[in-house]
Structures are given as structure tokens and as C-alpha cells.
Write a structure and sequence with these properties.
Layout (H helix, E strand, L loop, with lengths): L1 H13 L4 E6 L5 H7 L4 E5 L2 H14 L6 E5 L10 H6 L1 E5 L2 H13 L7 H10 L6 H9 L7 H10 L1 H5 L4 H14 L9 H18 L4 H12 L4 H10 L18 H13 L4 H16 L1 H5 L5 H9 L11 H26 L3 H25 L10 H7 L5 E7 L3 H10 L5 E2 L5 E3 L6 H9 L9 H11 L5 E5 L12 E9 H7 L7 H17 L4 E6 L4 E2 L17 E3 L4 E3 L10 E8 L2 E7 L13 E2 L5 H4 E3 L1 E4 L10 E4 L12 E9 L9 E10 L2 E5 L3 E4 L3 E7 L5 E8 L5 E8 L11
Parallel strand pairs: 1-3, 1-4, 2-3, 5-9, 5-10, 8-9
Antiparallel strand pairs: 6-18, 7-17, 10-18, 11-16, 12-13, 13-15, 14-15, 19-20, 20-24, 21-22, 21-23, 21-25, 25-26
Helix pairs in contact: 8-12, 14-19, 17-18, 18-19, 21-25
């Protein structure tokens, strides 16, 4: 604020004169001069020679209507040549800068400041850019308000050197004293990065003890919210040493220490059978789940831990049919599979942490499997010919995403990531996979309604397109879907993940599953934006995770005759002698085999190779698979304004390098939602986007004309998109004529 008042003093002089002399004997006001001197013809007068030189130049240029600004520390009586300007033009004398500050505050705000000189001058420098409330707070609350540490400290601890450079040495010292006072230390000169570290470690100590300083805690909350400052937080955390605590749950729930979360997990795992310990821990964990720190530091496993250890196993006893088991799995039990997957992704290599939670999970699995396999003789696949059925039952523009190895629980992550403005039709939910639930067999079940097995993707696609010769059907890899993917009325999009990743890296691939879910969600949204009325998501099979595997978990299966052993099933040409308490036998016709055998346990059959991520068995995780359907239905509040390209015919054969685009907006309704729309234009050449327009606002009944250049591109596709939803509104292909532009010669 002091800068504005100083500028007012200078401009008051310039109202009547074109020369202003500032005499600052205090030498404290130069920072104010530095703010304005570029706006005038400026002279700094240090001695008699400067005095003479300035006088000469001003007199020489006096008639040029310039404004001259003279600044000096010399008293008026020491000026020999410029003194007359003080009398005949205008001058401002500052003998004691602190008095100048007090006078200005009193004149403008009627406040009396009783603050030591050093701190008052520092306050003036800090006030630059602030409004009058800065001085009001300083007057009422004292010198503690010179620096708003709650506001300033984050910038300081994020980059100490850069922060202090904006202040001179005296102001820096005042700042350091205030910071030391905040953290309860006496001021001692030290490197600025040392002080910043002491501030952060004081904060960390307070969080560890459960009682952080109020100001530091407010700074910490802003730190968590700041993406640009995340790296500095990680750097400080890497330097901080956690102190041992007698009560690990007395820590503040917003703490940033992953090691403390791991300690909680270890202790909870050791006491899973202790209900009183569990109750105390759950109370703290629920506070932790609500914490900003868990979200911003991506500590994302506590919700799953609660789901796992609070699951009511007594519900399983109520299941009385396969239908009950299927409904129970898709309503409730999938959450346990999701929980253990998240824990495996974070802690599979930490045996001490994961072992008790895995054991707890398997105890629930064993109870559920007991019921599932009691009724599984009634199991029948509903997967065969699913793509044909979907296509036959709609006349809408349709896209089907065919995933590989998408379990029901994993697709819940995809559902969460797809924008909820697109309606998820809950009528479509699950289907039951064919047996054995492996890729070649089950992909054929999806594409081929006869039950035949085709070994290649190309064969399956050729079969499906042959079923609909009158359909404009296309096939594409899901990763290749772009804004241009909208030509086919029926589009089949294939994706090999997560099955390919899982089979390659086994459980190590789990860290990538979140990005896989994001890929599916982004491409589903893109297809809906491209004008597909409905997008289905189906898959061939699910998967199981065996986690940490002991040798005793591997199942030895004694067999005879021609058999093929896999991790989750065994194929045989001859009927095997089995213990029906341990195994399930199914008559099949696949790969030339007549029988398939499945274990009633989660553990794998003993086979060569690695274990961990697998499929092919008869468990609900592998066989209850998703069939999801999103519909592109506009919400009641979305814009109804139709926007279209109005001169498409003119753009089919354009002569010259310039072409005009006419965009028209019309609507049959007159409600507020059809009054205007914001759009963007996308430009494509050879299937690649090369340009994007700024946002264009268009009103109902308005026609907007835009002119563009071919710039060496003889054919350009232009798409009109809603700027907010990215929904495709219209498109046109602009073609440059091969005829020579004769420029009006004829």
C-alpha cells in the first residue's frame, strides 16, 4: 500500500510541474523509487558532478514535454545546481522514512502505528501489492502481522532461496526472526535452507505427536493441495527420521508418513483376532481415510483394509443356490477380491504385512467356495454368441469393447472412472464364462454363436462380420480409438490388457492396473463423444490372484492317460478317478478333450512356470464376468442447440489456398439451454490432428464465418465439438481443387 501512496505524492507534483525532486536523507526509500523510475527520465544524484550533469541535461531537454524524476540522499542545502527545482517545481523530502510511513498510514487510514523503526520499514516493504487491510491488521494485531506466515511459509519452504531474494537483507532478518519465533527458537543467523528444514521438521514433529502448531498445520494443508510443491514435500520426507512412539495411534490422522501406515498395518495384521484392538484401530483408520494426506499422497489402501476385516462372513451361510451365490458375489464378495488386489499391488513384496491379510482373505474365500461348489453343477455359460446378440438387439450406432481378462471386480474401477454423465444401464451387468475360462476358447464363445473355437482374432472377426453382411462393421484396437473413430455403425474394439500384462509379469503387473482402467474409461468416453449411442464392455474371462504361495498351496493331481495340465484346470481324454470333495469334473469338447477337472481351492495345480495371476478355473472370480452398457443420453440440463457446418457442398472442391467455413446454430426450443453453445474446431490431415481452434461461442440463430488455409494439405477433415463435453456435433472433409486458380483472368 505504501507504494500507491508514494505514487500519489509524485503524481501530485506532476499535475503542476514536469520536474519532481525526491530528497531521501533516510536512504530507506529507494525501493519505492525503483518501482517507478522506469516511467520517467530519471537521475540519481550522488555528488556535485551528478548535480551539474543532471541540471545540464534537464535544461537541454526541457521543451520535450518529458517528466523528469530526480532522486538523491543529499540534503537540500547540499544541492548546488538542482536546488532551484525544489523551489520552482516540486519536491518531496523524507528525512526519517519511518515518520513518512506513519504519516501516510494516519492520513489515509486514521491509524496510529507504534512499531519499532526496523520492523516498520520492513512492514512497508512487505506491504507492496497488499491493500489497506494489511496496515489495519498490523495496527490491531501488532508486528506479528508484518509477515502473514500462514500465507507466506509455503513459498518459503518450497524454495527458500528464491523466496528471500525478493527482500533486502534487513527485511530478510525480520522474516527470519518471525519464523524462529513461530517454531520456538531464538534467532541465530544460519543458512536459509537450514531454517526452512527446521520449520518443516517442527511441523512433522507436531504431526507425529498428534498436536501440530496451528499455523504450520494450515500451511501443511495448503502444501497437500499444491501440485507444484509436491516435490519439495517428498524431499523433506526423505530427510526426516521418524521417532519411535509408545502409542502409534496417537499420531495426527493427516500425517504424511507412509512408514507409519505400514506400522499400523503390521500391528493390525498381528492382532486381527483381537476384537478390542481391531475396534481401536478401525476408529483411527476411518479418520485416516478422510484425511487429505491419504488422497494427495496416494495412500489408497485403507478403505480396502476396512472392507476386508469388517466383512461379515455369517452372510455366506444364508446362500442356498447358485443364483444366490452369483448375486452375493456381484453385490458383496467382489469387494474382498478388490481389497486383496489393492493390497497385493502395494505390499506383495512385504511378507510381514501381507501374510495375515492374505490368510484372512483366504478364510473368507474357503467359506464362500464351500457354498459355490455345492451348487456349481447347475453352472451354465451365458457367453456364447454374446456379440451377435448385442448387435441384433439394437438399431443404434453401436460400439463394443472386448477386453481380455477383465474380472467383475476390476471393471468396477472402470465404472468409477467413466464420467457419470453417461448412463450406465444396470440391466446389463454380468454373464457367465465358458469352461475352461481361457482366452482362445472364451474369445471364440463371444464372437461365434455355434460354440466353435477359432485360434486367431482375424478368424473370429471374419466370422462375426459374415453374420451381418448388410452392416457397416469395423474392427480396431482400443488404444487406436481417436476423435476420428466414428465411421462404422458397428465397431468392435479389442484390448489385450490386463490379460497380456498379467500373463507376462504375473502379480507384478498389478501396479499398472489403474492405468489400464483409465485407458478403458477414456476410450469408452471417446466413443460416446464420437456419436456412438451405446458402448458395451464385455470380456472373455476373469482372473484369480494367488498372492504369496507356499509349496503346500500347489495341488498335486495324479492322472493317467492323455492329459493337459494348466494352472487352473486339467483336460483329459479319459475319465479320471477324483475325490469329489476336492475336484469338479465337467464333460466338455475343447482342444480334442472330453473332460475338464477343476480344483475347489484357490491354490493352483502344480505345473512348470510361474504362478500368481491366472485363469481357466471354475471359481466365481474367473467365471462371473462383466457385460456393461453405457448409453449416450443427453442430460436434462445439457445444451439443445444444434450446431452444424452450413456450407459443406462448397467445401468439396475448393480453388485456391483459402477456404471459408460457415457454422450455423439452430434449435426448435427456446429454453435457456438452447440459447448458446461453446464449440471448438479440430483439424485433421491423414488421420492426425494438427490444429485446434480457440473456444467459439455461438448463439441461437447465429451464423459464424471463419477463414482458413490449406497450407500444403490438399484434404482436411474438420470436426465441430462441444467445448465442454467434447461431443461431436458435425464434421466435413474439405478438398482442395487440383485445377489451377487463374485469379480472375477470365
Amino acid at each position: 500500500m505504501i507504494d500507491n501512496w508514494f505514487k500519489e505524492d509524485i503524481e501530485y507534483i506532476y499535475k503542476s510541474h514536469n520536474i519532481a525532486v525526491i530528497i531521501d536523507q533516510s536512504r530507506e526509500g529507494q525501493f519505492l523509487i525503483d518501482l517507478i523510475k522506469e516511467n520517467y527520465t530519471f537521475y540519481l544524484i550522488k555528488d556535485e558532478l551528478d548535480d551539474l550533469k543532471a541540471k545540464y541535461e534537464i535544461e537541454k531537454n526541457k521543451k520535450q514535454s518529458k517528466k523528469f524524476l530526480i532522486y538523491t540522499h543529499l540534503p537540500k542545502d547540499k544541492l548546488r545546481f538542482l536546488r532551484e527545482y525544489c523551489e520552482t517545481n516540486g519536491s518531496l523530502e523524507i528525512k526519517y522514512f519511518e515518520n513518512y510511513i506513519k504519516e501516510k498510514v494516519h492520513d489515509h487510514l486514521k491509524l496510529n502505528l507504534n512499531i519499532p523503526k526496523e520492523e516498520l520499514i520492513s512492514a512497508a516493504k512487505v506491504s507492496l501489492g497488499n491493500d489497506q487491510t494489511y496496515w489495519m491488521d498490523l495496527s490491531h494485531k501488532g508486528t506479528g502481522e508484518i509477515f502473514n506466515l500462514e500465507k507466506e511459509l509455503l513459498s518459503f519452504i518450497d524454495d527458500p532461496h528464491e523466496y528471500v531474494q525478493k527482500y533486502d537483507v534487513k527485511v530478510q532478518e525480520v522474516f527470519y526472526k518471525k519464523v524462529n519465533e513461530l517454531i520456538g527458537q531464538n534467532y541465530i543467523p544460519k543458512p536459509v535452507e537450514t531454517l526452512a528444514k527446521e520449520v518443516v521438521f517442527t511441523l512433522f514433529d507436531g504431526l507425529l505427536e498428534g498436536n501440530p502448531n496451528k499455523t504450520l498445520f494450515e500451511v501443511y494443508k495448503k502444501w497437500l493441495d499444491s501440485k507444484s510443491c509436491q516435490q519439495s514435500l517428498e524431499n523433506y520426507l526423505s530427510q526426516y527420521t521418524l521417532k519411535q512412539k509408545s502409542d502409534i495411534y496417537s499420531i495426527h490422522p493427516d500425517h504424511p508418513f507412509l512408514d507409519m501406515d505400514k506400522l499400523w498395518l503390521e500391528n493390525l495384521g498381528e492382532n486381527l483376532s483381537d476384537k478390542s484392538y481391531q475396534a481401536k484401530a478401525l476408529s483411527k483408520i476411518r479418520q485416516r481415510i478422510k484425511s487429505k494426506a491419504t488422497r494427495h499422497l496416494q495412500i489408497n489402501f485403507w478403505t480396502e483394509v476396512v472392507e476386508l476385516i469388517t466383512f461379515d462372513r455369517n452372510q455366506i451361510a444364508m446362500l442356498e443356490s447358485l443364483e444366490d451365490c452369483i448375486k452375493f458375489y456381484k453385490d458383496k464378495f467382489w469387494k474382498l477380491d478388490h481389497a486383496i488386489r489393492v493390497l497385493y499391488a502395494s505390499f506383495l513384496e512385504s511378507r510381514k504385512i501381507i501374510t495375515p491379510f492374505q490368510q484372512h482373505y483366504k478364510e473368507s474365500i474357503d467359506l464362500f467356495f464351500h457354498k459355490w461348489f455345492a451348487f456349481v453343477e447347475n453352472y451354465k455359460s451365458t457367453q456364447t454368441g454374446k456379440l451377435k446378440t448385442i448387435i441384433e438387439n439394437t438399431s443404434n450406432k453401436l460400439a463394443i469393447v472386448v477386453g481380455d481378462g477383465l474380472s467383475y471386480e476390476f471393471t468396477q474401477d472402470i465404472i468409477q472412472k467413466v464420467n457419470n454423465k453417461y448412463k450406465l444401464n444396470r440391466k446389463f451387468d454380468i454373464m457367465l464364462a465358458g469352461l475352461p475360462s481361457e482366452t482362445e476358447h472364451n474369445m471364440s464363445q463371444l464372437y461365434v454363436n455355434t460354440g466353435d473355437v477359432f485360434s486367431t482374432k482375424r478368424e473370429r472377426e471374419n466370422y462375426l462380420s459374415g453374420q451381418f453382411p448388410d452392416k457397416n462393421m469395423g474392427f480396431v484396437d482400443l488404444e487406436s480409438v481417436t476423435e476420428l473413430t466414428d465411421k462404422d455403425s458397428v465397431l468392435i474394439c479389442s484390448c489385450k490388457d490386463p490379460d497380456k500384462l498379467g500373463e507376462t509379469y504375473q502379480q507384478k503387473a498389478l501396479k499398472y492396473f489403474d492405468s489400464i482402467a483409465s485407458l478403458y474409461a477414456q476410450k469408452i468416453e471417446q466413443l460416446l463423444q464420437n456419436g456412438y449411442s451405446e458402448v458395451h464392455l464385455v470380456t472373455d474371462h476373469g482372473f484369480v490372484l494367488t498372492g504369496l504361495l507356499e509349496e503346500s498351496d500347489k495341488i498335486e493331481f495324479s492322472s493317467y492317460g492323455d492329459v493337459q495340465k494348466s494352472e487352473r484346470y486339467i483336460l483329459s481324454n479319459s475319465q479320471q478317478s477324483i475325490d469329489k470333495n476336492l475336484y469338479i469334473e465337467r464333460e466338455i469338447n475343447t482342444k480334442g478333450y472330453k473332460y475338464a477337472y477343476f480344483s475347489k481351492r484357490l491354490g493352483p495345480f502344480k505345473t512348470p512356470g510361474v504362478y500368481g495371476y491366472s485363469h481357466g478355473g471354475l471359481t466365481p472370480q474367473e467365471t462371473i464376468i462383466p457385460h456393461l452398457k453405457w448409453e449416450n443420453t443427453p442430460s436434462s440440463t445439457s445444451s439443445k442447440l444444434n450446431v452444424a457446418i452450413d456450407n459443406k457442398r462448397d467445401l468439396q472442391d475448393v480453388t485456391g489456398d483459402l477456404f471459408g467455413l460457415k457454422i450455423k446454430a439452430e434449435s426448435e426450443t427456446l429454453d435457456a439451454f438452447s440459447a448458446f453453445r461453446k464449440i471448438i474446431l479440430l483439424f485433421f490431415h491423414n488421420g492426425e490432428k494438427y490444429n485446434e481452434s480457440d473456444i467459439i461461442s455461438i448463439k441461437r440463430g447465429e451464423e459464424i464465418s471463419k477463414e482458413f488455409q490449406f497450407s500444403g494439405k490438399s484434404e482436411i477433415e474438420i470436426r465441430v465439438l462441444d467445448a465442454s463435453t467434447k461431443e461431436k456435433l458435425d464434421s466435413v472433409t474439405v478438398k482442395q481443387s487440383t485445377a489451377r486458380d487463374l485469379g480472375g483472368l477470365f
